[in-house]
Amino acid sequence: MARKKFLAGNWKLWGTLGEAKALATALIPAAKASENRVLVAPPYTAIAAVKEAVKGSPILVGAQDVSALETGARTGEISVLMLKELGVDVIILGHSERRQFHGETDKLVNEKIKLALKHGFEVIYCNGETLAEREAGKAAEVVIRQTKEAFAGLTEADLAKVTIAYEPVWAIGTGKTATPKDANDIHKVIRSTVAELYTKKAADAIIIQYGGSVKPDNVKELMAQTDIDGALVGGASLKADTFIPIIAFDK
Ligand code: PEP
């Protein structure tokens, strides 16, 4: 089955208003010329400005996280209700930096996914093994466990709004990329897990992005793999010069 490629930029802790608006604007022609889905996820403070900058273009705007609560005593957090007001399309959840630096567990990620879906958002759900887990031969085991915990309580219909991003932790921001074949092998494991939890139809339809040092010079080979349906990109999404060739990898 043909799955539409989905290229997403995670800007993390980058982007003053001026920088974010300029970069989003520079991406518009490439996104318009592409048949692929394109998303940028600026920091919360720049979401409104970026939404305005890309108005009328096919660029989707994402948030990098959300609180597990709609409202309440959570100093510093941002709620789904606030993201809805901004017109956010997609929420990235379970990024390894949220797990590593903010103690997010699979259970919390599952709660956030359910809340985001309840409010009509699309979700990019991230998983992936650490270097120690990979070296111990546990990469497949880890992503199977993570996927099962993250999807607990989700229906097959919910999956239409869920993208999975497989991001081996050791490849994020390090310049080390999983070989296209190694990445594809884990994508197949994740897809089989979705088939086991739901149906082959759901597994065939779900978009699985790869993330971890995706750059203009390796994107083509990664996207040529049978089970890699897009990319979640950090560093290379911060400059038009490097993100445009990723958006337009098939041109
Ligand atoms: C990411 O932030 O999800 C990521 C994959 O980062 P980078 O592309 O810089 O490795």
Tell me what you see in this structure.
The chain is α/β, with parallel strands linked by helices and 251 residues long. The chain is 42% helix and 15% strand. The chain is built from eleven helices and eight strands. Helix 7 (139-150) runs parallel beside helix 8 (180-197). It is globular and about 45 Å long. The model has no long low-confidence stretch (mean pLDDT 97).
Instruction: Give the overall shape, derived from the CA principal axes.
Output: globular
Number of strands: 8
At the first level of CATH, the class is: Alpha Beta
What's the CATH architecture name? Alpha-Beta Barrel
Q: Helix-strand pattern, N to C?
A: EHEHEHEHHEHHEHHEHEH
Q: Helices and strands: which structural class? A: alpha/beta
Strand residue percentage: 15-25%
Helix tally equals 11
Distance between the termini: 21 Å
Strands in their spatial order, largest beta sheet: 1-2-3-4-5-6-7-8
Mean pLDDT metric: 97
Stated plainly, the CATH topology is called TIM Barrel
Largest sheet: 8 strands, parallel, barrel
Helix content: 40-55%
Distinct ligands:
phosphoenolpyruvate
Q: Name the CATH superfamily assignment.
A: Aldolase class I
Radius of gyration: 17 Å
Query: Which ranges are low-confidence, i.e. pLDDT below 50, for 5 or more consecutive residues?
Result: none
Work out the count of structural domains. Answer: 1
